[in-house]
Amino acid sequence: MKQRIITATILIAIFLPIAILGGIPFLFLAYIMASIGLYELFQMRKLSIFSFHGLISILLLWIFLLPNQYFEAINITGLSKIELAFAAVLIFLSYTVIVKNHFTFDDVGFILLSVLYIGIGFFYFVQIREEGLVYLFYALFVVWVTDSGAYFAGRRFGKRKLWPEISPNKTVEGFFGGIVSGLVVAILFILFSNIQIPILQLIIVTIIISIFGQMGDLAESALKRHYGVKDSGNLFPGHGGILDRCDSWLFVLPLLHFLIF
């Protein structure tokens, strides 16, 4: 626990000023986090990021992460992001032939889904920050407090397992405790911030993102269980890897953007 607290303190000390500053430093942080996240997924699959397919994957991820104004300014191909992704599909499938299936169709599917999962999540990480710091903090606090609320409610009241095949320790009581905890965050933002969302809409949105934040955590648990790993990485002592810390964000931030903006 001591190690977790020390690591969390250091991470907050690094993240908070960059989040407040926003702009290019925040975009740079998103690029670093997303690239490490993709590396962690490659490690689970036992694929090398330092390879031809790894290079194409990173380039595609970086394209997805570019805010639209930057993408339009530097895009010399005239292709959209989706069209560039399709070009990557053709390159990957051609590569399977060249290497005689040492790199397979299944690997192509895994990489493309990984790039979309990481790329879209962190793209909206940047987009939400551009809409306003208060919206980013609202989303992150709902995620963090939902997670903590689910943990403590589950320990205190938990009797019925939520999804034992995926995450044996999560309970139905913890799931609803997480939602209630998220609603407390929404009320605090209504009372003490300048968040520009009508009260009823904010409550509904909070319930939705609290549910999907927990779903994001379960999806990451399912992925780790499938590949037989405890954590996505060991970058943060006591906390695991980037994906262990950001799995709920990757579900919540795109959803929040769609629901509000």
UniProtKB/TrEMBL annotation:
Belongs to the CDS family. It catalyses: a 1,2-diacyl-sn-glycero-3-phosphate + CTP + H(+) = a CDP-1,2-diacyl-sn-glycerol + diphosphate. Its EC number is 2.7.7.41. It is found in: Cell membrane. GO terms for molecular function: phosphatidate cytidylyltransferase activity. It is a multi-pass membrane protein. Signal peptide: none annotated. GO terms for biological process: CDP-diacylglycerol biosynthetic process. It comes from the Bacteria. It holds the Pfam family CTP_transf_1. This is Phosphatidate cytidylyltransferase. Keywords: Cell membrane, Lipid biosynthesis, Lipid metabolism, Membrane, Nucleotidyltransferase, Phospholipid biosynthesis, Phospholipid metabolism, Transferase, Transmembrane, Transmembrane helix. The chain crosses the membrane at residues 6-34, 46-66, 78-98, 110-127, 133-153, 174-192, 198-216. Pathway: Lipid metabolism; Phospholipid metabolism; CDP-diacylglycerol biosynthesis; CDP-diacylglycerol from sn-glycerol 3-phosphate: step 3/3. GO terms for cellular component: plasma membrane.
